[in-house]
Design a protein that fits this description.
six-stranded antiparallel beta sheet, alpha+beta
């Protein structure tokens, strides 16, 4: 029984040796076949090559495809990485562009502010807008100039083009400006085309209405509106805006100042005109010799 169990192992060992010997003989034959220099052997080699190579190409095609796919995957990975880098650079360039545009707009506003033609008798203080009220019922802004800079309640505040509002509340380092659009704002103005007096009444809209016009029919859209100086609150001649007309026929003012984008404001030092109640005050120096004789 032990001999029967060992019989298959001997057969497999003998078969393996036989196959190994056959493989060695075949390889040796192929080696000799490829090394023999004979025309007949050369033709045989060519026939074997013609028959084997096409089939070998078909066998290696999946391997070639796999290699190409691997190369494509690596190329795609590199392209993806480059795309991500370009995206990051594009975001940085957008941020730089936005910063450059903001600086350009800021410089333009400062240049406009410097180019405003004012009466030489007025002096001014330029302040930066710190914040606004953030309330739909009260339209004010806060400036970084105050009592230490000589700011006084009631002074006019303008941007690079036109009137914005007036100072209403002064602290040591800050002051508050009530905008023309605020409901508590009342500004005496005149229409340049005919000199007609009116009042701009704030109503929390970007285009406050014109009130108390004596002859509204003589006012045309596009007429310039300036401060009249009545009441001594504001100096006369400050640009406020232009007349517009709604579909209902109501006259309003399109403000020259960009109320929605205030960054810098110029506060005008304006002293109200002296009110003379006594005619004798007109004489500045008493004449010691009224006759004029020597």
């Amino acid at each position: 029984m032990a001999r029967d169990r060992n019989t298959p192992d001997r057969y497999s060992t003998a078969l393996g040796r036989l196959m190994l010997g056959a493989l060695i003989v075949m390889l040796l034959g192929l080696f000799l076949l490829w090394r023999i220099d004979n025309p007949r052997i050369e033709r045989l080699r060519m026939e074997i090559t013609d028959r084997v190579i096409p089939n070998f190409s078909a066998v290696t095609a999946p391997v070639t495809s796999a290699v190409n796919i691997l190369r494509s995957a690596r190329s795609y990975t590199r392209i993806y990485q480059q795309n991500q880098e370009l995206r990051r650079e594009l975001q940085q360039m957008k941020a730089w562009k936005e910063a450059a545009l903001q600086r350009e707009q800021e410089n333009a506003r400062l240049l406009d502010l410097n180019n405003v033609r004012l009466d030489p008798k007025f002096t001014k203080i330029t302040g930066v807008v710190l914040a606004d009220s953030g309330s739909p019922f009260r339209q004010t802004v806060l400036l970084n100039v105050g009592r230490r800079d000589g700011i006084v309640d009631g002074w006019a505040a303008i941007d690079g083009i036109g009137l914005v509002g007036r100072i209403a509340g002064v602290g040591e380092r800050t002051s508050r400006v009530i905008l023309l659009t605020d409901t508590s704002s009342r500004i005496a103005v005149s229409i340049e085309s005919n000199g007609q007096r009116a009042m701009i009444v704030g109503d929390n809209t970007s285009r406050p209405p014109l009130e108390f016009l004596e002859a509204p029919e003589t006012v045309r859209p596009g007429d310039r509106v300036v401060t009249s100086g009545d009441g001594g609150v504001f100096p006369s001649g400050l640009l406020v805006g232009q007349v517009t007309q709604t579909q209902s026929g109501r006259l309003r003012v399109r403000l020259a100042a960009d109320i929605q984008r205030l960054e810098f404001l110029r506060v005008l030092r304006h002293q109200p005109r002296e009110i003379i109640s006594n005619a004798g005050d007109l004489v500045g120096v008493q004449l010691s010799n009224p006759s004029g004789k020597p």
